[in-house]
Fold this sequence. Notes:
CATH topology of the domain at 50-150: Alpha-Beta Plaits
Number of strands: 5
Largest sheet: 3 strands, antiparallel
Structural class: alpha+beta
Strand content: 5-15%
Bound molecules: iron/sulfur cluster
Amino acid sequence: MREYLKNTWLGIWTVLVGMKITFKHLFIPAVTIQYPDVKVPLPERVRNRLYVNMDDCIGCDQCARACPVNCITIETVKGLPTDDLGITSNGKKKALWVTKFDIDFAKCCYCQLCVFPCPTECIYMTDIYEFSEFKRNDLHYNFSTLSTDEGEEKKLNWEKFQAEKEAQKAAAAKQKAEKPAPEKKESTDKSKSAGE
Ligand code: SF4
Ligand code: SF4
């Protein structure tokens, strides 16, 4: 009987010791949060997902050249003299159509080096840090506002414009070459009179 009581007490004591920390936390404020319903405030210099405001992008390629992992791909086409591409919010005139502006976030190391050289401050870090995907390709973001067809159209227009310009140049050069040289009558007369 004595042994039985001793074992019972030992069982109770063991549970009490095991639950000591649990009981303690019933009376102190929680250190955990109910993520994702509750989120901790972000620090001031946080590095998250990038965003590109294409209305202000002039296609200068400086961000892509600054990127240490080459995860920014930009393609541009020159605008025609008749095209109105508008101006950026800091007053820069746009001259290039940005037909492709892709960032591969699977490669991005969030160094922010692309942000600093941008002359129009149109590429910047957002406060979005939850953008995991099941497929790696889904981390490939396309920021260009032009569709593939529109990009091709701009390219063709520029090529056509260049071809027309070259043709005009060639025609002008041909016309110049075919034009008969002016007669040197006056100079001949002068030399005659000098001989007399
Ligand atoms: S944050 Fe760094 S790695 Fe990511 S796109 Fe910008 S320069 Fe490239
Ligand atoms: S540096 Fe800025 S303006 Fe130039 S291509 Fe990059 S995002 Fe566009």
